[in-house]
Structures are given as C-alpha cells and as structure tokens.
Specification:
By secondary structure, the chain is mainly α. Helices cover 80% and strands 0% of the residues.
C-alpha cells in the first residue's frame, strides 16, 4: 500500500511544484524507497499542510515493520492473536493516506486525472 500511494503523493508534489509530471520525474522517483518519497514531501515547505499526516504515516509504517519483522510462523501466530488490532491499524493507515492525497491534490489537475 505504501509503495503505490507514496508514488502518488510524490508525483502530486512534483506536479504541484513543476505544473507537470514528465517521464524523467517518474524515472527519478522509481529508485526511491516509499519512506524516502514521504521524507522528500517533508522537506518541501510548500507541502506544510501534509507534514503532520506524513509524519504519522511514517510512524504507522514503522510500527507495521516492527510488528511484521519476525519469522513466518511467529508472524502468523501474532496475527491470529492480534488480528483485530492489526486490522484497525491498517484502517488508520488508510485513513491517513486518504487525508494526505486530497490535501496535496487540492486544486490540482493531476490529482483529478488520478481519481477520474
């Protein structure tokens, strides 16, 4: 989920700054990790409106990595024990992304093209 949505946020940011997204922009983005893409947004003062939600996305992603960084058998057992809590965390993460995308995409033709 973070890989695709961080790409959308990054490209929305590029569009907001450059008024276009070129193949060169996309090529520059592809080697970046999802967290690096989000960190880039935090470096842009123009995107201050999403800095708080972006920080929370990074925190939630770090929590996800901590929970899932274990052997497969342990992971399955932990999920079975905590599935409701973990699902709630995934919904929270989705809600944060749902907040960030339209905030950055506000009055942005590229965002409209992504949605419709």
């Amino acid at each position: 989920m973070l890989t695709c949505n961080s790409a959308l946020l990054y490209l929305l940011g590029v569009f907001k700054l450059e008024k276009t997204v070129s193949p060169a922009h996309a090529k520059k983005m592809t080697p970046l990790t999802p967290t690096t893409r989000l960190s880039w947004l935090l470096e842009q003062q123009e995107f201050k409106a999403i800095h708080s939600v972006t920080n929370r996305l990074l925190e939630k992603y770090a929590e996800f990595l901590e929970k899932t960084d274990r052997p497969k058998d342990e992971l399955i057992a932990a999920f079975n024990e905590n599935s409701s809590e973990w699902m709630e965390g995934s919904y929270t993460f989705g809600d944060l992304m749902f907040e960030a995308l339209p905030t950055l995409g506000e009055q942005n033709r590229f965002y409209r093209l992504i949605v419709v």
